[in-house]
Design brief:
Layout (H helix, E strand, L loop, with lengths): L1 E2 L5 H10 L4 E5 L24 H12 L4 E5 L8 H4 L6 E4 L4 H14 L2 E5 L11 E5 L7 H14 L21 E5 L28 H20 L1
Parallel strand pairs: 1-2, 1-4, 2-3, 4-5, 5-7
Antiparallel strand pairs: 6-7
Helix pairs in contact: 1-2, 1-6
Length: 231
């Protein structure tokens, strides 16, 4: 199951389909727009306006005709994630860009003992060789993952070290959340630099993102899923 079929998720789905995965569930409610063309696999001049998940289904079946493809035309949130996990997927890959959705998936996957792979932010990143995988407690240079880490510790009781006990030799307890992140500082587009109005978030109206980073992250997420399924 892949949630979020955008700049990261579409490439993840492609890799899973080409690797022979027999059943894929895609979750997204968005439609292809012109601004997606720089980084999203199904985004073409000829597909603008189409449902992202429907466009990907057609592509998957062209690659792997025997694949069972299920579509969920919705955005993940706390109110629906348990319903969507009733099919008991072997792996859930989170390629969304909303903190609330990510937290909902982390909590639900832990409760139902479903393997989860969480993708961090790709916005403003330029170096695909800086891609890392590890526990959420270890992730750096990622504001989204830092926000998740803080909220999970404060609101949901995830393991943490008390501030007064932190030293250079302190071992930060793992949180049990498998994540991918790009270990470099996000860079603002030059057009925004030194201006009063600065971009907000990591959307197309913010830092922007490049296929040279989003696609490798999607492929890495797919490989993490394949490793879990096969080994």
């Amino acid at each position: 199951m892949v949630a979020g079929i955008g700049g990261v998720g579409s490439w993840c789905v492609e890799a899973l389909a080409r690797s022979g995965v027999g059943r894929l569930t895609l979750i997204d409610m968005d439609h292809i727009s012109e601004s997606n063309i720089n980084r999203q696999l199904p985004a073409l001049g000829s597909t603008i306006g189409q449902s992202k998940i429907e466009a990907m289904r057609q592509r998957i079946l062209d690659i792997h005709p025997h694949c069972q493809v299920e579509l969920i035309d919705d955005f993940v949130e706390a109110a629906n994630i348990y319903d969507y996990l009733q099919c008991s997927p072997d792996v859930l890959v989170d390629c969304t860009d909303q903190a609330d959705a990510k937290i909902a998936m982390i909590l639900a996957a832990k409760k139902q003992k479903i393997k989860l792979i969480v993708c961090g932010a790709a916005g403003g990143k330029r170096n695909p060789l800086a891609l890392k995988r590890g526990d959420l407690s270890q992730a750096t240079h990622d504001a989204m993952l830092a926000k998740l880490r803080s909220r999970l510790r404060k609101e949901h009781g995830f393991a943490r070290v008390k501030a007064e006990k932190v030293t250079a030799k302190t071992r930060i307890p793992k949180m049990g959340v498998d994540v991918l992140w790009v270990e470099e500082n996000a860079v603002m587009p030059a057009a925004w630099q030194n201006q009063i109005m600065t971009p907000q978030g990591l959307s197309c109206a913010g830092y922007g993102s490049s296929v040279t980073v989003t696609a490798p992250m999607g492929f890495a997420a797919a490989q993490a899923a394949l490793d879990y399924l096969l080994f």
